[in-house]
Design a protein that fits this description.
Elements: H1 29-40, H2 62-67, H3 71-85, E1 86-89, E2 97-101, E3 104-109, H4 117-126, H5 130-139, H6 145-148, H7 160-184, H8 211-228, H9 242-257, H10 262-284, E4 288-298, E5 313-322, H11 328-338
Parallel strand pairs: 3-4
Antiparallel strand pairs: 1-2, 2-3, 4-5
């Protein structure tokens, strides 16, 4: 069964949910109100308004206002804040795709080239790991964040801000990823050779770049920043910290499953790191690095997370930086999340 979000068809605010436009009318409400008034002895004729010289207090501090919201509204508010920082310029099929933060470019992704026989052979070889990875592959169709819970507490009330921040990061990154995918609209592995036989349903949207890689590497970048209080230096990927090891595993699982090429994952990793660093830079009010992924610079026989920015992985770092506009809410949430890791 697909997991329904709050605004999905049957979610609480979806078209068929209890608060959606097609929700059934609540019967007996008026009777309950009149019964309450009758029981309390109230009526309009005998009602005297209170003295309103003392107005109800309302929170003026940013975090007081935020904390007064329900959990669902907090998630939506933070998603809106993070997503509002990011804009994409999708490819027309032949041009580069670009992502910006507060108007400044942070990522450029080149169009993919032709698929070669070696790409298919690589996936067929990767399929040998399916038996041991099936539980992960199946679960990760709709769950990514719990796998980062191997590194930090995320499942209880003591990590509320961490969960909010990583959830907003994943959701905002997913939006950008789908916009970029739509521009490229590239075929999935099964469309080249059905004998690859993916072990999960092949998604109908574009294969390039990998959404799972993009989202997991964005989350890893933000989590790494929470642990280090700094924007990622890609030189650190020569000996990657655990958040990036988890992200790489999630990306590789999509290749093992047969639904993504290796270059899909590499492009997604570069894009995810760029987005994650842009979010961190917005929180820390500092410069965001600018990255690019060139399909022609990706070498299938010499790739991996430690090679992502070394010449054979397709990724590169520009000498330029972007200066995102600061976000007061993101700053506050980031600082509180740091205290939870």
């Amino acid at each position: 069964m697909a997991v329904q979000g709050p605004h999905g068809p049957h979610g609480p605010h979806g078209p068929h949910g209890p608060h959606g436009p097609h929700a059934p009318a609540v019967e007996g409400g008026a009777v309950s109100i009149y019964s309450l008034e009758a029981a309390a002895g109230h009526n309009q004729a005998g009602w005297t308004p209170k003295d309103l010289a003392a107005q109800p207090t309302r929170p003026t501090n940013l975090m007081e206002r935020f904390n007064a919201l329900s959990g669902l509204l907090q998630s939506q508010m933070l998603y809106s804040e993070v997503s509002g920082l990011l804009t994409s310029t999708p490819s027309d099929g032949a041009s580069d795709a670009k992502v910006s933060v507060s108007g400044g470019p942070v990522a450029t992704i080149s169009p993919p080239g032709d698929i070669e026989k070696a790409d298919l052979v690589y996936l067929k070889d990767a399929s040998k790991d399916r038996k041991s990875r099936i539980p992960e592959i199946s679960d990760q169709i709709s769950h990514i964040l719990p796998y980062f819970g191997q590194l930090v507490r995320m499942g209880d009330g003591s990590s509320r801000y961490l969960a909010l921040l990583l959830g907003a990061t994943q959701a905002a990154t997913a939006r950008i990823s789908y916009e970029i995918k739509f521009g490229f609209s590239t075929p999935r592995p099964i469309q080249y050779d059905r004998q690859l036989s993916p072990i999960i349903q092949t998604p109908s949207h574009s294969t390039y770049p990998s959404g799972h890689a993009t989202e997991s590497f964005a989350v890893a970048t933000v989590l790494n920043a929470l642990l280090t209080n700094s924007v990622l230096d890609v030189g650190q990927l020569s000996d990657p910290s655990m958040p990036f090891v988890v992200a790489q595993r999630i990306a590789e699982n999509r290749e093992v499953a047969g639904v993504h090429f290796a270059h899909d994952s590499a492009a997604g990793a570069v894009l995810g790191i760029a987005i994650g660093n842009a979010i961190v830079a917005s929180a820390l009010r500092t410069d965001a690095p600018v990255y690019s992924f060139a399909f022609d610079d990706f070498h299938l026989d010499d790739h991996g997370i430690d090679k992502l920015f070394t010449g054979s992985g397709g990724g590169s770092v520009s000498a330029d930086t972007a200066m995102p506009g600061g976000s007061d809410l993101l700053y506050e949430i980031f600082q509180k999340a740091r205290m939870e890791v």
